[in-house]
Amino acid sequence: MTDFWLSYSCCVQEIDVAIAETCLQEAGALSVSCVAGENVGIVVDELEGRLPLWPVCKVSGLFVPEAKLESIEQVLTANGVLPRQTGITVVSDRNWHDLWRDKFLPQRFGEGLWVCPTWTEPPTDAKSVVLIDPGMAFGTGNHETTALCLEWLSMCDAVAGAAVLDYGCGSGIIGLAAAKLGAAEVTAVDIDDTARKVCQGNAILNGLSNTIIGDPSIANGHHYDVVVANILLEPLVQLADQLSRLMRPGGHIVLSGILVEQIPTLLAAYSSKYDMEPPWRYGDWALLTGTLRDA
Question: Are 203 and 172 spatial neighbours (Cβ–Cβ below 8 Å)?
């Protein structure tokens, strides 16, 4: 086992991210990551119904010590990508946890929603702040599907005063964001006991007393104004009828955790009961929303 790795990073325009990631992978990167290259929020293109990346992104690849990284910039340029702020650093094998923490920075969604790890200070002008200690549960805001859900919540006027169900809550980030955005009541459910414990800890961390946390059975018999399910295609399809029974007519369904090519399958499962909106896209991932029709 090696004691260290090499990390190559560069800043590129949003339109070039996919090409840059492919170049790093073809150069032998063991993993590739993408974070904001500047402290700005994600911009929504309302005309196309598409949720893009940040205007400038920092793309990084992790390589074995023997990798020859000097030629990567030439490869990027040859593929039409103009890399900026390039750098090669040595990453100690024993610093993975600290490296992850360093990359988990405060993130803004919409005009005023911020998600901040517990070890950083939120911006002084932040309107709504969700503090997150993800532990071993999914949900920091870094993944595309979580970002899509948070962006939608931050833009939806229906969240304020609503009863919200976060189905498959993970760390609780989506439900807690809804609470911070003014939801009257939030129910966060997950089949995983570890996720529920992490979610409970994050609810306490944020001082939220209007959040109910448990396994999915606690939602039975209740009716919600907004239901968010950021899971995977197969369970989303299987849950179509069940989720509709948990909603009030006119309520909003928010579905993510799916790839762009899976949109038609999910639309087929929900279009019979919901008036579906155009999908939002973020890289290879998608979000679908709709309103429940009267029975």
Answer: yes
